[in-house]
Automatic annotation (TrEMBL), chain A:
Family: Belongs to the cytochrome ubiquinol oxidase subunit 2 family.
Molecular functions (GO terms): electron transfer activity; oxidoreductase activity, acting on diphenols and related substances as donors, oxygen as acceptor
Transmembrane segments: 6-32, 52-71, 77-98, 119-145, 165-188, 204-222, 234-252, 264-285, 305-325
GO biological process, one term: aerobic electron transport chain
Regions annotated as coiled coil: none
Family annotation (InterPro entries): Cyt-d_oxidase_su2 (IPR003317)
Organism: Zunongwangia pacifica
Location of the protein in the cell: Cell membrane
Keywords of this entry: Cell membrane, Membrane, Transmembrane, Transmembrane helix
Topology of the protein relative to the lipid bilayer: Multi-pass membrane protein
Name of the molecule in the record: Cytochrome d ubiquinol oxidase subunit II
TrEMBL record, chain B:
Annotated PANTHER family: CYTOCHROME BD MENAQUINOL OXIDASE SUBUNIT I-RELATED, CYTOCHROME D UBIQUINOL OXIDASE
Protein's cellular compartments: Cell membrane
Name under which the protein is recorded: Cytochrome ubiquinol oxidase subunit I
TM helices/strands, residue ranges: 12-34, 54-74, 94-114, 126-149, 180-203, 215-233, 315-340, 352-373, 403-421
InterPro entries from the UniProt entry: Cyt-d_ubiquinol_oxidase_su_1
Protein source organism: Zunongwangia pacifica
Amino acid sequence: MLYVVLFFLLFSLLLYVLLGGADFGAGIVELFSSRENKKVNRDTIYRVMGPIWEANHIWLIILIVILWIAFPVYFNIIIIYLHIPLTLVLLGITMRGVSFVFRHYDAFQDRSQLVYNGLFRFSSFVTPIFLGMCFAALVGGQLIVTEDYTNYGFYDLFMAPWFNGFSILMGLFYASLCAFLASTLLIGESEGDIRTMYIRKSKIATGILVVLGFVLIAYGFFNDIAFIRDFVTNPVSIICIILSGILLVPLWKFIRAGRRILSRYFAGMQVVLVLFAALIAHFPYVIITSDKEISLLEKISPDSVIMVLGISLIIGGGIILPGLFHLMKSFKMIKIFEKDEQQFQK
Amino acid sequence: MENLDYARLQMAFTLGFHIIFACIGMVMPFFMVVSHHKWLKTRNPVYLKLTKAWLKGVAIFFVTGAVSGTALSFELGMLWPEFMKHAGPIIGMPFSLEGAAFFVEAIALGFYLYGWNKLPEKFHWFTGVIIGISGVLSGILVVAANGWMNAPSGFEYINGEFTNVDPVQAFLNPAWFSQALHMTLAAFVATSFGVAGIHAFQILRGKAVEVHKSAFKIAISFGAIAALLQPISGDISAKDVAERQPAKLAAMEAHFETEKGAPLFIGGVVDEENKEVNYKIEIPNALSFLAFGDFDAEVKGLNEFPEDEIPPVAIVHYAFQVMVGIGTLLALAGILFFISLKKKSWMNSKKYWWFFMLLAPLGFLALEAGWVVTEVGRQPWIIYQIMRTSDAVTPMPGMKFSFFMYVAVYILLAITVTWLMQRQIKALNTQKD
């Protein structure tokens, strides 16, 4: 049953990074658009992402609930030492969620839209940055996990691990990944000039993503951050990263050929590879503190708890996944048959 | 004030905020589907207009409830890491099921919001029903976790260690049923009277009276039934508390001395220092009867408990009085509504609408008061008789700032949502048929 729980943990992490990321990215693309394109983008993402936008963010709740039930050691570290950046993430999620619904469900469309739009774009941009910073803090090797809080200063315990050059780079890296996902997704949902606009955005995002990826690795390497050092010396990670670079070529071919579903799978594949590369180098030791590596499987909950959680997840997943799939299909987020795709091209 | 006090205030404030939005998000879908059903049956455009107006309300409240709920799921750990470290695995089951129910709700909402003229009519309506059912289910499941804090079960506590954990038994803890029933009914009462009161106000103003009268009737029907059932559920809850948490019961009643044939105090000013209640109305033997079904039963007073295990008496007593008082008033209002269905002339009287308009905020007040009773009444424990709240709090200093930030953000949100609702009503009033 532990494997079922681990599967759902990684699965919800992946889906949150992917789907939540595409949501954030849509706001980022909008932030960095001309005034005219901002409006176009606003209407497009309402049409495309509207039906599932709230569902996307529930993966985060599932993730945190699995962590607290099955992996109390990890949960405790995350929740105590990342208190500040997590608060900022929550603030961002709150603002982004409400401004999205306010701007589309307000009874009148007037000047208040300016506020909603501004809030939506800004929070879409900063939230993934803080999320990336949280991740960087866990693997960055600056965490001080202790029982004796009085021995350390506030800054060393609660600020330094997440507020540094490495984590800021990681935050920007994730934000550009989000923008890449969103613009690639939206290419398939638009036509004519708008389509050209999203293709341009997608190219820019890809460029930034690749550059930031290199800067991140270089920065980590020269500052001797264990996570990066092990990452670049782990053959599997390296192969994944090279593969993701090679796969950019077919991805662009599919985009140009208008194969919107295949291009989406390939964009998703990029994320899978990057995430896999990041986790595999150390798994199950994900958290790296200043003096040790902590295993995800350390002091996990008793078997009875894992058992019940696994069963709940299987039942819940059995209800949710078909529903979600049907929702996406109904609103043409994904298409199962190539036939549909041909119709679209026509 | 210390870190602990700010952490408690923040928890109280954010939960107090979430509870309102979550309850509205839970109950309003039911109004919406009833109105939708009437539209499908009668094809009277009034119902379509109303359904669409309520739908926007549901969307706004669902999202506000959802994001504040997301924040809460983190906050539990961020404020009370020691609690979550031990309790998290034990009470995780209802939370994971709640996650699933909530997910179903979000999916159904996606279908419902975007399904107009795209999905088959009946299926579309049915997705609305799913929103309501899964919303109520989420509420019931979350209350299971709170029930466990009041009635810890499903583990053995040996030398400060939680062993032999049985999550299913923890999930089915003895306080769950009575609390979930009481909470669900309360959500219906509060939301129904709130929504009905707003529509009563519009009727008074003479704006789009036909729509608002239909809206009023749908909303108040739910509320009236729930308000009449609530005293029964309250009785079940009281007996449960009397049995398992005598200190809470004693605080609710500001009952300082143990006695047989204990009287029930109504109102009164609590003097915690001299341990007495002044200016109260006393009903002899009533407390013994209500708590144990026996006029001569012994009710434990606060004097039986050590000083450091007594909850703040005055707050709990006042909150309890407010809850019961409002509950009684709303049950009477429910009866009044049912009579007015026979005596139609009442509905032409301005007094009738004034009455229901004034009731609008009371249900929510009772909701918050009831929550104060159960949460403050459990203090100083976070897990009843196992872990103290002060031992669970985060080691991070500076909770003061976190508290004030949440207050500022949530007040801003509350103001914005109220303003948005006002605009929805304005739009409903000015819309042409």
